[in-house]
Amino acid sequence: MDFIVKTFKENKGFFVAVAYGVTSVSITFFNKAVLNYYGFNYSNSLTLGQMIFSLFFLVTMKAFGFISYPDFNLDLCKKLASLSFLFILMVVSGLAALAKTNVPLFSALRRLSTLIVIVGEGFLLGKVTPTDEVQSVVVMVLGALIAGLGDATFDLIGSIYILFNCFVTAGYLIYIAKKTKETQLNTFGLMFYCNILSLPATLILTFITEWEGISTFEGYSNLGFQFCFFMSSIQAFLLNYFIFLCSTMNSPLTTSITGQIKSILQTIIGLFMFGDVIITPLLSFGLIFSTLASFWYSYIKYAQTRARALASSS
């Protein structure tokens, strides 16, 4: 037992990175199982469940002193209202897109958000991204678009949802940096306010669009459905928690590469897990093309980190 504890302490950063990667992959499949495998095609209700569980864990962990963030404050609510609006659009559109597309294509097309972030940071924040990094992301996106053209189960509405989700996600990621500086809130404070401010609108949206469906759904007694819904809900919180731990215990490089590896695993597992993918030559070529670009991107981030380390040591 002492050996296990010692090993964990000495390699805490590694285990946190693994936890982030595993949670990031598994939540996609639990969401997909709830929405498609068990036929609970009510993405707003799933979003509502995730928000309620996230708030429960945030409040409980704060009460026991594991995390800290400011108490409810109306001034902070006003400052974070716009960010919360982007948050709810991001979560709702992401789950709606996943319900209508297969996992490999969903993972591939979601990489477009990285390119949008690069462009947005350039225009809004004046940040200059290295040319080779931009090139690798462009190749990733091209591969995703090729995969989309080769997807025999292509769903136009689902693809529109993904495109919208990419823009909203990029806006959220850019805007969250600005709001963090303005409010001085940590990740948990931002999670708390985004969830609590989004909850009323999500509740109303769920009631208006899905009440009839969720009130007549017959699968609530299914233990498999209960397990997947529960795991999906708690992992929405755990994913944000592990991202926070990974970014504080490890370098941004580790977090970035872990994110790329999880996308690759997600694509591979998703090809065979739900039986909703028809593998075509063009789809295979696009996914491989995009995956190789992910390795290229990870290498570039590694090289950048090495260069900064050498520069600081000299």
What do you see in this structure?
The termini are far apart. The chain is 84% helix and 0% strand. The protein has helices at 2-10, 12-37, 43-63, 74-100, 103-109, 112-125, 131-149, 156-183, 187-216, 223-249, 252-273, 281-313. The relative contact order is 0.19. The model has no long low-confidence stretch (mean pLDDT 81). It has twelve helices and no strands. The longest helix has 33 residues, at 281-313. By secondary structure, the protein is mostly helical. The radius of gyration is 20 Å and the shape is globular.
Give the topology, please.
Blueprint: H1 2-10, H2 12-37, H3 43-63, H4 74-100, H5 103-109, H6 112-125, H7 131-149, H8 156-183, H9 187-216, H10 223-249, H11 252-273, H12 281-313
Proportion of residues in extended strands: under 5%
Number of helices: 12
Measured distance between first and last alpha carbons: 42 Å
In total, the number of strands is: 0
What is the helix fraction of residues, given as a range? over 70%
Query: SSE order, as H and E?
Result: HHHHHHHHHHHH
Summarize, please:
With 314 residues, this protein is mainly alpha-helical. It has helices at residues 2-10, 12-37, 43-63, 74-100, 103-109, 112-125, 131-149, 156-183, 187-216, 223-249, 252-273, 281-313.
